[in-house]
Amino acid sequence: MEKERLQRFQGCLVGVAVGDALGVPVEGWTREQIRQRFGVLREMVDSVRPAGSVSDDTMQTLCLAESLAELGRFDADDFVRRLLHWYRTDPFGIGIHTKRVLSLVAQGISWREAVERVEQQHAPMTAGNGSLMRCAPIALRYYRDIGGLLEFSHESSRVTHPNPLARSSCAFFNCVLSRVLRGWEKADALSFAMEVMAHAPHELLDRIQGIAHKSADEVPVSGFVLDTLECALWAWWHHDEFEEALVTVVNLGGDTDTNAAVTGALMGAQCGLDAIPERWRERVSVVPRCLELAAKLYELAEAE
Known about the structure:
mainly alpha; single chain; 16 helices
């Protein structure tokens, strides 16, 4: 059981990275454009970046995982410091909303004031998927503590995305992920999250209730946080194999790197590290870092 759960932890973080890397080359493409160029895209290919490159999805996930692993707990100020250090490297793929927040923080404004300013200036266009894409480490650290998981899912989103839909999406996703890490059946994991998150925004709950009955052509793929949450949960619900789930999501087009990264976290936890194709793992340079951090978070979670 211990080995199996560690495999789930490792599969989760590696799943983020390989999903991100698979989706990077076709981010923003339509499914028709992908079909015309590749038929079905199953491999990591060169684009504006070399094949196997990851984007802000993975790098922000690693910032959060490293903060949790080193401190042993969630600390918003430490997380923001790590995000700011990353931001100052002129990172690839950073989202517009996150860039707005971190650019203010870089000017010396507190992150709390920065997110408030951005929210006031740009709402309601502030419910992007930029916090959902990185939230999985919270579930790894707090999968045995549902109270901590809910609180810190919200707080980890709040440092850039305080919009209620973004915060609730992170909490809902991590509720499901925490049960998947335990080896629960899909229906039980989803029911658990629906019960725990019964007071979540109705827009979110309505989306989740429809995933079992949607076809691939009906799955939303934009950068809106509810679209990404629905896409990832839909792929997890309808697929039992890691590779097929990610190939399906990427070939739907849209925000391919983020949709595949979030799907990869869930499917990696569902299927375990060994289910992730070795040819994908070998292409992505941050995989050893993912493995190391997953092991540290596993140790912290199990020590409680």
